[in-house]
Specification:
Blueprint (H helix, E strand, L loop, with lengths): L1 H21 L5 H20 L13 H8 L10 H12 L21 H13 L10 H17 L7 E5 L2 H16 L7 E6 L5 H8 L7 E4 L9 H13 L3 E8 L11 H11 L2 E6 L23 E4 L1 H4 L7 E5 L2 H8 L30 H10 L1 H23 L4 E5 L5 E6 L7 H17 L6 E5 L2 E7 L7 H24 L1
Parallel strand pairs: 2-3, 2-4, 4-5, 5-6
Antiparallel strand pairs: 1-7, 6-7, 8-9, 9-11, 10-11
Helix pairs in contact: 2-4, 5-13, 7-8, 7-12, 9-10, 14-16, 15-16
Length: 495
């Protein structure tokens, strides 16, 4: 009996220990303390962002990453040391995408209100895969999609979905067009992009069953805009070969130079030839919110589908994209499904699972809804107009710098250029010098600039799309470009 009693006692103790280990709940006091610790770090980080180098120190970055490899932790550790490593060691050694000097790539800053929305979404952890799971919360997402529809002047038949970005929006658009226009005969379908279209389209086409040899690349004019005459010829050639042209992409602001394709011209051809016309407005589409800028994107509302990335021109955090489809029922026909364990489909209210591929999903629309409710569309229109005005002003100043050749004036808020001069007679020498210019300005620490290859030429780029970038920063950037260009030209002439 004594031995048995001892075994029972040990078993009870083991159960107590197991139950304690299995408890992942935190007390209100613990949650408050942890939340305050994180908030303190985040606010301090954002308060210092204007003085933070535009790109962190990448010295021995490979060695750092190798040293960080570790096995899964068996025991937990305190929060504060982890925050020390994140904010003191790891986050600083990256691109400062939240800063006013981030002019290298397109995403626009990450407004603080979105972080609050994500905290609410993650902490409450509501399921929005089907309408019945959280009807009021799904309605908030539906509201945002309707706002985007109205800003883009799309018809009431439009439906859409939130995505993680442009790549997934492209994939869904291609799948939708393929399903409606090709049916089972996928192999005969041909799709058309320009040489300046985003590379994600070709990848998305492959995922949607459209092989690389069925994607046609159309040339561009001197302003990097798709040539509609060449598009017409390629469509005719494919029809003559017995193929089935079914989809064409035009771009409302290319990544390389910010070029806006002749959307109306492409729309005319698509209507006449029976093609699905998708506009990639991931970068530039939201400029259509601003009435006085709409002529820059003329024809955009004629698209059959449209990519928009709120993590670009709405300044939201990475991972915030959306797709609009003019014929909402075509999108629903692609994705609508049911299962024995799911509630019956309903038709009155927007239901995410009926318009997108995801069933398990969080609440991605809250960050957009809360931000727009707090700031309002009026302030967003003002911010977008300011970015366009800043880009135009800066491009005019940079074009006056001796040695600078402007290759792409800002159609929206990106401009691109290269440098020429004595000792820089070949395109290879000009490419090297232009890339060096981007690197030298970046190495100063206040601004991060990048370039892009357009054909055989390397172009320096300036992308004005952070909500924190104002006139004072652009004046300094222009000055640094002028100083470094002068130095490069002297060096080239002396070689």
């Amino acid at each position: 009996m004594c031995c048995l009693y001892g075994d029972e006692s040990r078993s009870e103790m083991d159960n107590v220990m197991t139950n304690e280990l299995a408890n992942l709940e935190l007390t209100p006091a613990q949650m408050t303390a942890m939340g305050e610790a994180v908030l303190t770090r985040v606010v301090a980080n954002l308060a210092a962002v204007s003085e933070t180098p535009s790109r962190g120190d990448y010295t021995d970055i490979e060695a750092l990453c190798r040293s960080m490899r570790e096995d899964a932790p068996e025991k937990g550790v305190a929060l504060e040391p982890l925050l020390d490593q994140l904010f003191n060691e790891w986050i600083p050694r990256s691109f400062t995408t939240t800063g006013p000097g981030y002019l290298a790539y397109i995403p626009g800053g990450g407004v603080y209100t979105a972080a609050l929305a994500d905290f609410i979404s993650d902490a409450t952890n509501r399921y929005t895969g089907v309408w019945q799971g959280a009807p009021a919360l799904v309605q908030l997402e539906a509201n945002v999609l309707d706002w985007a529809r109205d800003w883009m002047c799309f018809p009431p038949t439009t439906r859409g979905l939130f995505t993680t970005g442009g790549s997934m929006a492209m994939f869904n658009a291609i799948a939708c067009a393929r399903e409606k226009l090709l049916g089972d005969d996928i192999r005969s379908g041909t799709l058309y992009v320009s040489s300046q279209s985003h590379h994600s389209i070709v990848k998305a086409a492959k995922l949607a069953g459209i092989a690389h040899d069925r994607v046609r690349t159309i040339g561009v004019d001197e302003d990097f805009r798709m040539r509609v005459d060449e598009l017409e010829r390629e469509i005719a050639v494919d029809r003559q070969a017995g193929l089935r042209p079914f989809m064409v992409f035009s771009t409302a602001g290319t990544t390389n130079t910010g070029a806006v394709d002749p959307i109306n011209g492409v729309a005319d051809i698509a209507a006449r030839e029976g093609l699905w016309h998708h506009v990639d407005g991931a970068y530039g589409g939201f400029f259509y919110m601003v009435p006085e800028l709409r002529p820059l994107l003329s024809g955009l509302p004629r698209a059959d589908s449209l990519t928009l990335d709120p993590h670009k021109a709405l300044f939201l955090p990475y991972g915030t994209g959306l797709l609009l489809v003019r014929d909402g029922e075509a999108l629903r026909a692609l994705h609508s499904s049911t299962a024995g364990y799911l509630p019956d489909n309903q038709n009155e209210f927007y239901d995410p699972a009926q318009y997108g591929p995801e069933l398990s999903r969080g609440f991605p629309g809250l960050r957009v809804w809360l931000t727009l409710k707090i700031f309002g569309a009026e302030r967003y229109r003002a911010a977008l107009k300011e970015k366009r005005d800043l880009a135009v002003w800066a491009a005019e100043q940079v074009a006056r710098i001796p040695g600078v050749v402007m290759d792409a004036s800002p159609q929206l808020s990106i401009f691109a250029f290269h440098i020429e001069g004595n000792g820089l007679e070949t395109i290879e020498a000009q490419n090297t010098a232009t890339e060096s210019l981007m690197n030298r300005v970046t190495d100063r620490g206040q601004f991060m600039l990048s370039g892009a290859m357009a054909g055989e030429r390397y172009l320096g780029r300036v992308v004005v799309l952070s909500f924190r970038t104002r006139r004072s920063q652009m004046e300094i950037c222009v000055q640094q470009l002028a100083e470094e260009t002068a130095t490069l030209l002297v060096e080239a002439a002396e070689r």
